[in-house]
């Protein structure tokens, strides 16, 4: 007989089935024992006669194969239960669990949670995080594929950093210097230039920043897209907005159970996401919150206050900030006027989740931009030379998946939205 998922038991009332899963809880009464069995689709109460020798000494989280008949029976989980005919242990638990995972809330520190990652992920509420992640990633892929984008896979070992700065992990690559990629930037532009016009990638990237914050990881997942034949950066924001609407729709269709479990509301985009220029944002912060913006950039407090403003003024949990200064954006960014750029960030619930913009597609302008940044373009020749051979106007964006997920679910530390986070002190599991 084939295995039935717990989710489908209700359709099998009074029928014989085999289910398989983990022992979530055991409650022994005088003549019978209740075992709550859990599989990827849900939980069910199984009723076992105490004469069955297997139940004696059965530990939580053992893996069982259970056959029996689905019977009507109201309990805290379902309107049915399983009257067990036979039990088989597929994998036994050797020692006491280091953390208790069958409680309503997983009340342990973040470190304990991450040290015992596989067990903590078995907790329903932690398990839900990566189910939601899957819906987001699938939504991103689905929307872009429908819009004519193709998925690409770019190298993670590179000769030069794409984002400037020093936050690069250096490798010894057969006695040459190489680095772990900070982003797919050059390669996604090169694939646009190769004639694909519209490309996307969901990949892991690496930042060697010494930061130890609740919003940075040293390895993170970037959802990137890049598209050609745009008018300007507004087209990129349009596509991000449509893509986010698609993902939110999908979360409503497929993620409601998880969101309910986590007691979190799915955000809404009811009107166009407001777009304000950086200078205007700085003025808003000064006039409304007496917050002075320095260094042409928003710090975390600035982002938080601007989100507050967007909520009050536009009833929006999202806000685009555009036209960042040239000083603050990488060399590939299309300039606007003397000091500005055709760039934007998207801020969601108080934190930046996206950077994007139009890129330079003119060879001479690109060479000049490298010079302005004090970089030798010859060190980047395999990228820069592409622009000698006809590259259309284009642009794109990057969304940090773990950061988006954390903000979406109201999780304070980004380490919790990475299954196996990498930070300065964490290299295992
Ligand atoms: P921040 O200013 O928050 O450090 P950034 O400007 O360095 O971010 P970008 O290089 O513009 O980030 O990357 C685009 C997106 O990728 C960010 O909006 C963020 O969502 C995500 N991201 C970047 N660096 C990290 C990181 N170290 N950990 C997690 N996510 C990151």
TrEMBL record:
Tree of life domain: Bacteria
Annotated EC: 6.1.1.12
GO cellular component assignments: aminoacyl-tRNA synthetase multienzyme complex; cytosol
GO biological process: aspartyl-tRNA aminoacylation
Localization: Cytoplasm
An example Gene Ontology molecular-function term: catalytic activity, acting on a protein
Lipoprotein is among the record's keywords: no
Region annotation Aspartate: where it falls in the sequence: 185-188
This protein's UniProt keywords: Aminoacyl-tRNA synthetase, ATP-binding, Cytoplasm, Ligase, Nucleotide-binding, Protein biosynthesis
Annotated binding of L-aspartate, by residue: 163, 207, 355, 359
Reaction(s) catalysed by this chain's protein: tRNA(Asp) + L-aspartate + ATP = L-aspartyl-tRNA(Asp) + AMP + diphosphate
Domain (Aminoacyl-transfer RNA synthetases class-II family profile): residue spans on this chain: 130-429
A Pfam family matched in the record: tRNA-synt_2
Residue sites binding ATP per the record: 207-209, 215-217, 352, 400-403
Function: Catalyzes the attachment of L-aspartate to tRNA(Asp) in a two-step reaction: L-aspartate is first activated by ATP to form Asp-AMP and then transferred to the acceptor end of tRNA(Asp).
Protein family: Belongs to the class-II aminoacyl-tRNA synthetase family. Type 2 subfamily.
Assembly, per entry: Homodimer.
Protein name: Aspartate--tRNA ligase
Species, as recorded: Clostridium aciditolerans
Gene of this entry: aspS
């Amino acid at each position: 007989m084939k295995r039935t998922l717990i989710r489908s038991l209700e359709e099998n009332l009074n029928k014989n089935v085999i289910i398989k899963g983990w022992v979530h809880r055991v409650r022994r009464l005088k003549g019978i024992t209740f075992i709550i069995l859990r599989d990827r689709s849900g939980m069910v109460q199984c009723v076992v006669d105490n004469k069955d020798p297997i139940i004696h000494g059965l530990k939580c989280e053992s893996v069982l194969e259970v056959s029996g008949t689905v019977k009507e029976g109201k309990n805290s989980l379902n309107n049915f239960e399983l009257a067990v005919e036979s039990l088989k242990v597929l994998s036994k638990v050797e020692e006491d669990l280091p953390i208790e995972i069958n409680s309503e809330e997983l009340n342990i520190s973040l470190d304990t949670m991450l040290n015992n990652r596989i067990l903590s992920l078995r907790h329903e509420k932690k398990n839900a995080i990566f189910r939601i992640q899957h819906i987001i990633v699938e939504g991103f892929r689905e929307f872009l594929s429908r819009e004519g984008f193709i998925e690409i896979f770019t190298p993670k070992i590179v000769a030069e950093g794409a984002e400037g700065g020093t936050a690069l992990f250096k490798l010894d690559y057969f006695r040459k210097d190489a680095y772990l990629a900070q982003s797919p930037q050059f390669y996604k532009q090169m694939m646009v230039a190769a004639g694909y016009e519209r490309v996307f990638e969901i990949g892991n990237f690496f930042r060697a920043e010494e930061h130890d914050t609740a919003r940075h990881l040293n390895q993170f997942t970037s959802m990137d897209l890049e598209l050609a034949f745009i008018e300007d950066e507004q087209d990129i924001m349009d596509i991000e907005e449509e893509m986010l609407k698609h993902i939110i729709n999908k979360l409503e269709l497929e993620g409601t159970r998880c969101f309910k479990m986590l007691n979190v509301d799915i955000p809404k985009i009811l009107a166009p996401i407001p777009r304000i220029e950086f200078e205007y944002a700085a003025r808003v912060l000064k006039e409304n919150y007496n917050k002075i913006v320095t260094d042409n950039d928003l710090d975390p407090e600035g982002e938080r206050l601007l989100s507050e403003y967007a909520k009050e003024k536009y009833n929006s949990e999202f806000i685009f900030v555009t036209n960042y200064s040239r000083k603050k954006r990488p060399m590939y960014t299309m300039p606007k006027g003397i000091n500005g750029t055709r760039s934007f960030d998207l801020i969601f619930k108080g934190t930046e989740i996206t950077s994007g913009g139009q890129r330079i597609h003119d060879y001479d302008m690109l060479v000049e931009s490298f010079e302005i940044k004090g970089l030798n373009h010859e060190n980047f020749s395999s990228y820069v030379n592409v622009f000698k051979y006809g590259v259309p106007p284009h642009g794109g964006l990057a969304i940090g998946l773990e950061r988006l997920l954390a903000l979406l679910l109201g999780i304070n530390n980004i380490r919790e939205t990475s299954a196996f986070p990498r930070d300065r002190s964490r290299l295992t599991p």
